[in-house]
């Protein structure tokens, strides 16, 4: 009898786990398909954002001409905007408190996008938490022109993911430069972790290990001696 009850409980448990798993797969696959169904692979436009000039350019893909240009606000030095090439994966209409429109990027280390603002005085400055802010009237004009899957290129200076140059990266930091360091460390066999642009606890262990292996000062910082030992150089 006890054996029968044990088998019954085990069977119910396995059924429950399978039910949860199938529900998870179905839900996430459905979400993925829904996003893919929204992607227009014949998008007319692409977006180029120049962090240094504080400008967003709407470019016609058929002739590479700039059709519109908007002044923007970008991330503070402590919370930089994500340099790189991204894709619009979400859109929405927001309330006035945080601007009237939202268009999100597929950045792996956080939630970033283009949105309006209730702080118009910030436009033209480095004052956001990393997102691209626009005047509400400007993003309301831009919003209907942008499809899911639109390419967004964010340039932050002459040095690619390092923007205007190296910064000292410490635990808790995130950004394009962290992503690039993780990628290079992984490529050279120093980092088996997930490349996500976030300097978390796992990465701290491998930074220390790299420093020991290369006879560097033992600390958690990614600084000039670390960049040099990893072979990272800035080229314009």
UniProtKB/TrEMBL annotation:
<dbReference type="GO" id="GO:0071555">
    <property type="term" value="P:cell wall organization"/>
</dbReference>
<dbReference type="GO" id="GO:0016757">
    <property type="term" value="F:glycosyltransferase activity"/>
</dbReference>
<keyword id="KW-0328">Glycosyltransferase</keyword>
<dbReference type="InterPro" id="IPR036365">
    <property type="entry name" value="PGBD-like_sf"/>
</dbReference>
<dbReference type="Pfam" id="PF01471">
    <property type="entry name" value="PG_binding_1"/>
</dbReference>
<keyword id="KW-0808">Transferase</keyword>
<protein>
    <submittedName>
        <fullName>Lipoprotein-anchoring transpeptidase ErfK/SrfK</fullName>
    </submittedName>
</protein>
<keyword id="KW-0133">Cell shape</keyword>
<comment type="pathway">
    <text>Cell wall biogenesis; peptidoglycan biosynthesis.</text>
</comment>
<feature type="domain" description="L,D-TPase catalytic">
    <location>
        <begin position="45"/>
        <end position="155"/>
    </location>
</feature>
<dbReference type="InterPro" id="IPR036366">
    <property type="entry name" value="PGBDSf"/>
</dbReference>
<dbReference type="GO" id="GO:0071972">
    <property type="term" value="F:peptidoglycan L,D-transpeptidase activity"/>
</dbReference>
<dbReference type="GO" id="GO:0018104">
    <property type="term" value="P:peptidoglycan-protein cross-linking"/>
</dbReference>
<keyword id="KW-0961">Cell wall biogenesis/degradation</keyword>
<comment type="similarity">
    <text>Belongs to the YkuD family.</text>
</comment>
<feature type="active site" description="Nucleophile">
    <location>
        <position position="131"/>
    </location>
</feature>
<dbReference type="InterPro" id="IPR005490">
    <property type="entry name" value="LD_TPept_cat_dom"/>
</dbReference>
<dbReference type="Pfam" id="PF03734">
    <property type="entry name" value="YkuD"/>
</dbReference>
<keyword id="KW-0449">Lipoprotein</keyword>
<dbReference type="InterPro" id="IPR002477">
    <property type="entry name" value="Peptidoglycan-bd-like"/>
</dbReference>
<dbReference type="GO" id="GO:0008360">
    <property type="term" value="P:regulation of cell shape"/>
</dbReference>
<dbReference type="InterPro" id="IPR050979">
    <property type="entry name" value="LD-transpeptidase"/>
</dbReference>
<keyword id="KW-0573">Peptidoglycan synthesis</keyword>
<dbReference type="GO" id="GO:0005576">
    <property type="term" value="C:extracellular region"/>
</dbReference>
<keyword id="KW-0378">Hydrolase</keyword>
<dbReference type="InterPro" id="IPR038063">
    <property type="entry name" value="Transpep_catalytic_dom"/>
</dbReference>
<feature type="active site" description="Proton donor/acceptor">
    <location>
        <position position="115"/>
    </location>
</feature>
